[in-house]
UniProtKB/TrEMBL annotation:
Signal peptide: none annotated. This is Tricorn protease-like protein. One of its GO terms (biological process) is proteolysis. It comes from the Bacteria. Gene3D superfamilies: 2-enoyl-CoA Hydratase, Chain A, domain 1 (3.90.226.10), 2.30.42.10, 3.30.750.44. It comes from Acidipila rosea. Keywords: Hydrolase, Protease. GO terms for molecular function: endopeptidase activity; serine-type peptidase activity. SUPFAM superfamilies: ClpP/crotonase, PDZ domain-like.
Length: 435
């Protein structure tokens, strides 16, 4: 999935024909030099470039130029790829509202329907709930395939149809990003509750931060507060990923230190990967304090300078009473670092996976300057699980498929969670009968 004109410039920028040509050439050069999958840049790609070039170089406005370049990038059919200006102040629902949605037919025609609405996010604060039908933004009707966009740093009006079938308009305050880069509006990261009968529930909305000290500590604190639970549901629905903080969830699934996986750029791809991966340094502990980040950086500096892959490895946190009795709840928006958790659980048979297919979006990425304040975000390496699986473009199929039913959700039912609860309790009953 590419970043499109949802990220438009906040101030007018004058681009000459030469500027547009140079920026396009810089984009193409950056892709040739750093794009993770050079085999995608062959004849079909070159033909696509020449097909899109007249629209790109002939764009009248900056917005149409940005859209034209973004349209070209969609030809590569890969995630973590986008084109935007450094002054961009608009963002998607996922970033601005801490909410996700899907398209479906409704009594109001084809519409976007909210699926995940994370507690503490802008949408949740505004009273938007899963199952609500989106009609328009700032007085403008929005229908699929057009995605809604939200101006950061201002109040946005959103027209929805709630579960009472009444139209209403609500105001959403979209916070301004910090610095030059777009930031997620952080929701409540971790939620827990007791479900009764020794069953605990843990929801993680995202994994902010490169190392994820804060979210890792919150996860550990939440598990400690749950006490001696015998079974655990971990809800990763709507978790679109983040950083290494996801390692803490993986470490809750097993008492052992087990290799998880690594990101590999195209220069490191080798036929001898099975033996080469044994030489990669391993990261196996998220520090408890940010004060330990400098020593950590020094420890891994040689590998980072040499651009050597670093293997993630579960932390070895010891035996938990719920080990072997864990359910992972996932959906089509479970992506990136959250998918790493799902793949780790699948490869090591550590949990039952329930819900929808995951997003199949898992690459390491960066962004580079391409001129006149524009940047190209591009994937530079594919993520490999320890067993050698590449998840990009290949969603993880759950052990038990339970599709999101927005009509039931509007009625207050969460069928996916209900299914997870029934499954984990029925397994417990069957085990007790055989003891």
């Amino acid at each position: 999935m590419t970043t499109n004109s949802a990220l438009k410039t906040a101030v007018p920028i004058q681009l000459s024909a030469k500027d547009r040509h140079v920026i396009l050439e810089n984009v193409l050069h950056a892709l040739q030099k750093r794009f993770y999958s050079p085999e995608k840049l062959k004849e079909d790609w070159r033909m696509a470039v020449e097909r899109h070039r007249p629209l790109i170089e002939g764009s009248v406005t900056t917005d149409t130029f940005e859209q034209a370049v973004s349209d070209l990038l969609t030809e590569l059919h890969t995630s973590h790829l986008g084109f935007f200006h450094r002054s961009a102040r608009r963002a998607s629902s996922r970033a601005a509202l801490s909410a996700t949605y899907l398209a479906d037919d409704t009594p109001y025609g084809k519409r976007w329907i909210f699926q995940d609405v994370h507690s503490g996010g802008a949408a949740n604060i505004a009273g938007i709930a899963p199952g609500d039908i989106l009609l328009g933004v700032d007085g403008r009707e929005i229908t699929p395939p057009e995605h809604p966009i939200f101006v950061m740093g201002k109040q946005t009006s959103i027209e929805i149809v709630g579960n009472d079938e009444q139209r209403r308009t609500t105001s959403v305050d979209v916070a301004r990003p910090k610095g030059k880069k777009l930031h997620f509006i952080q929701p409540t990261l971790v939620e827990t509750r007791h479900m009764g009968g020794g069953l605990g529930y843990l929801k993680v909305a995202m994994f902010p931060g490169m190392v994820g000290v804060e979210v890792a500590n919150q996860i550990s604190d939440a598990i400690e507060k749950l006490g001696a639970i015998e079974r655990l549901i971990i809800d990763l629905r709507g978790n679109t990923g983040g950083g290494i903080g996801a390692l803490r969830v993986m470490s809750l699934l097993t008492p052992e230190k087990i290799p998880v996986g690594f990101a590999l750029d195209r220069r490191r791809v080798t036929k001898n990967l099975e033996s080469a991966k044994l030489t990669f340094p391993r990261f196996s502990r998220i520090p408890a304090s940010t004060k330990a980040l400098w020593p950590l950086a020094l420890k891994f500096a040689p590998a980072m300078l040499a651009k050597k892959p670093i293997v993630l490895q579960s932390e070895g946190l010891g035996k938990k009473p719920f080990h072997g009795r864990v359910v992972l709840l996932v959906n089509r928006h479970t992506a990136s670092a959250a998918e790493m958790i799902v793949a780790f659980a699948r490869e090591n048979q550590l949990a039952t996976i329930i819900g929808e297919k995951t997003a199949g979006r898992l690459l390491s990425a960066t962004s580079v300057k391409v001129g006149k304040g524009f940047r190209l975000a591009l994937p530079t390496g594919a993520y490999y699980t320890w067993e050698g699986t590449v998840l990009e473009g290949d969603p993880i199929v759950p052990d038990q498929m339970v599709e999101f039913d927005w009509r039931d959700r509007r009625g207050g039912r969460d069928q996916q969670l209900e299914h997870a609860i029934n499954h984990i309790r029925s397994v417990a009953v069957m085990k007790s009968m055989h003891q």
